[in-house]
């Protein structure tokens, strides 16, 4: 393990998700955020049948690897750990990613109010210290989300009107306006924001780096 007194190890986040950035900053880590530019829908279609857990793990790996690929990455010199992440919401046997369109988000919300589903959050961590690509490790965290049964159509329309649910898995958040529509969460609450802090800590330590060695705030 690297000494906690050594210079902080830099964490590169293969995402520009505001929720993931806020979560890392809240635990003392200011990452370097790099968009991965992975075509998620095309990648999943080419991969064939995947469970929700397999899909988020697969996409998290693709995103982390894309940031390290000299042919596709932006002009960044990598010296640290690269973290990719992806999330999907599973309800009644169906797997949902980001709705993108208001009409899609509206249909989902009308179907999921009063119901419960599982938010799967995949993580892939690559050791790229000193610019050398080394060991990689991944994991999936999950949480069961119960929605209130008294959510009105007017509330759904107002929520969609904010634009918040359009670019998040499952068309909801727990760290912003969507929080009022969620009655309870069972499991890792960080998984619902797309980045499980306890799981990332375990992955970091598995690569021989102390969790506290990432603290740079």
Verbal overview:
The chain has 217 residues and is α/β, with parallel strands linked by helices. The chain has one domain: Maf protein. Helix content is 31%, strand content 24%. The protein contains seven helices and seven strands; from the N terminus they run βαβααββαββαβαα. Strands 1, 2, 3, 4, 5, 6 and 7 form a seven-stranded mixed sheet that branches. Strand 5 and strand 6 (136-147) form a beta hairpin. Helix 4 (102-112) runs antiparallel to helix 5 (153-161). The longest helix is centred in the first third of the chain and has 17 residues, at 52-68. The protein is globular, with a radius of gyration of 18 Å.
Strand content: 15-25%
The termini sit apart by 21 Å
CATH topology: Maf protein
User: Based on the structure given, which CATH architecture is correct?
Assistant: Alpha-Beta Complex
How many separate structural domains?
Answer: 1
Number of helices: 7
Order of secondary-structure elements: EHEHHEEHEEHEHH
Question: Biggest β-sheet, characterized?
Answer: 7 strands, mixed
Overall mean pLDDT stands at 92
The top level CATH class name: Alpha Beta
What is the helix content?
25-40%
Question: Whole-number radius of gyration?
Answer: 18 Å
Number of strands: 7
Class by helix and strand content?
A: alpha/beta
- The coarse silhouette is globular
